[in-house]
Amino acid sequence: MVSLQATVALTTIGVYLLVVLAVGYRGWQIGTLEVDDWMAAGRDLGLVVLLFTYTATYHSAFAFLGIGGFVYDNGIGIFGAAFLWVALSGLILWVLGTRVWLLGKKYGYITPADLVGDLYDSDLLARLVSLTLVVVTFPYVAIQLIGSGLVFETATRGLVSFEVGAALLLLVGVLYVWLGGLRAVAWTDTIQGVFLFAAMWLAGWVFVFTAFRGPASFWTRLSENFAAYLALPGPAGLFTPAYYTTLWLTFALGIMMLPHLFLRYVAARSPRVLRWTAAFGTGYLILFYVPTAFLALGAVVAFPDLARPDSAIPAVLFEFTPVWFASVVVAGAVAAAMSTADSQLHAVSTLITRDWYEPLAGSDVDERTVTRTARLLVPLLGAISYVIAVQEVRFILDLAAVSLYNAAQVFPILVGGLVWPRASRSGALSGFVLGVTVTCVLTFDVITLPASLPGFVPGFYGLLVNVVTFVSLGLLGPDSENEDVLRVQRYLEYATRRQWEETVRDDD
Amino acid sequence: MLVPASASGKVAAALLGLFFVAMNPPVVTAIGSGPAVAGFAPLYVWFVFWGVFVSLVLAWAAHENAFGLGADQVPPELEQTDPTPEGPADAPGDSRVN
User: Fold this and answer.
1) What is the model's pLDDT at position B91?
2) Structural domain range at position A483
């Protein structure tokens, strides 16, 4: 006989999947086979949809499962770091995103490689950036599948296995990405974002009042028995000042360079939409974490010897709240994983088509063929992700760990090219390659740094080498290398200073 | 290009600077070892306070368009509904530059 927990979980997830499928179908009805439409939602996303697609995409399975495990092991320091990287991400979305939006509208950029390749007039740099971003994004799709499969299995008490659960969610995700491209992804993200936020807030407060009769006694109990979890550097001593500071900084730069978020820059209807998305999105993402602390720290009190820290939040929910309630909330984790996986699937497919297929196909290829190719890649990439996910390849987890650190290496050369007139092709190429190399070498322990050096995260050492190389070669290099940089910077200057008005006045 | 020119931009930048200082070591390290605030862990209260603070600052800054690139800075040629992007090597039906 099927248990109440499995019945509620299956019903909730079933209804949820039907709704997102219907929304994705609607996206397909409205969409066209134009490249801009499938890859960038026609550059026409409004505030509500962009807000939720930004926040739901930003929060992956990490926000529901991973952070629980992190707090369980290292205390609440991660919340401070998370608030910092969320706030800096909001600023980047606003200040950089509006500039990228403007240039995308002017020059037709869609992917980061489009922009970097044109800025430095370098196909090689464009390919390297694209390859790096594909490699660091692709494992994330498998990670989301692993997360959603585990949630499915937990919520249904094993009635639906990890493999079947992951396959079902992937199938639905692939279907609506294939049908509607970024528009369908963004619309389904809106539903997922609302569900995710409501589930976490309800769960946090229901738990703290059910298990502890309110937050005051909850915090008292924690501070009496687990004080190390409530201060830096945490019980394991991880959050040293050097680690804490470089972690949030590198994470913020890395997240905002990942292609599934970069595509949101160019998909906005206007700079105003991006500005308000940055403001409200930051509030949403920060407020989301407020009740998460209750659930994650609740596991520290209730299950001091949890075998799998990532299951801290589901374990607390099923122990302290009604089964039907826990099942509904845990389905929110499915939404968290799915909203990121679909965006990443779409982004990787877009990057491969845009940055690799189009240049190879040449100028004869028409827009419909390009879009069809991108759509065809979606099930193919999904199938590969699934094969990786069900085998739980350890290497994929290692790759995911360096994803954000390596994506962050795009930031200096992109921003430098937009603001610094001396930015050069050789500087950008060398800085990027060295930054990625240093990050990988340190992350995979190819060499070990002396203990006397500060304990920065590997990506930060990569950023230091990247920036020093980029600036040095920019200062030393010939002026002929930065003609395209100056062309783009002049256009930004023309826009921000409203120079077309001067032209009109001169004509008068 | 990225430095705020308006008065509201400078105020917003200063408030954001305050947030980044308050949320980093050594401030957070010192706060974590302080006494409880109405029964709550001091570091948690500190994080939530500054989290709400930075959200409000960004909302105000957005209202004031403190960091620029507003609708009035979009060149008229980009305001048409179906813009034709420029590029030296446009493929037929393609808007890509390279």
Assistant:
1) 33
2) 409-508
Short-list B29, B19, B83, B87, CA closest to A91: B19
Q: Are A408 and A257 in contact (CB under 8 A)?
A: yes
Nearest Cβ partner for B41 among A219, A278, A363? A219
Q: In chain B, which residues have their Cβ closer than 8 Å to the Cβ of A290?
A: 48, 51
A87-140 residue pLDDT tens: 999 999 999 999 999 999 999 999 999 999 999 999 999 999 999 999 888 777
User: Residue B50 and residue A489: Cβ atoms within 8 Å?
Assistant: no
Q: Are residues A364 and A427 in the same domain?
A: no
A300 and A422 in a single domain? The answer is no
pLDDT above 50 for A4? yes
Domain extent at residue B47 = 7-66
Say whether the peptide bond before residue B26 is cis (omega within 30 degrees of 0): yes
**DSSP assignments along A285-304, one per residue:** HHHHHHHHHHHHHHHHHH-T
A462 and A351 part of one domain: no
With 50 as the cut, is the pLDDT of residue B95 above it? no
What is the predicted ipTM?
Answer: 0.90
* Statement to judge: residues A172 and A254 lie in one domain: yes
A387 and A478 assigned to the same domain: no
pLDDT digits (tens, 9 = 90+) for B62-90: 999 998 788 888 998 887 655 455 543 33
Whether A432 and A397 map to the same domain: the answer is no
User: pTM for this structure?
Assistant: 0.91
The count of structural domains within chain B is: 1
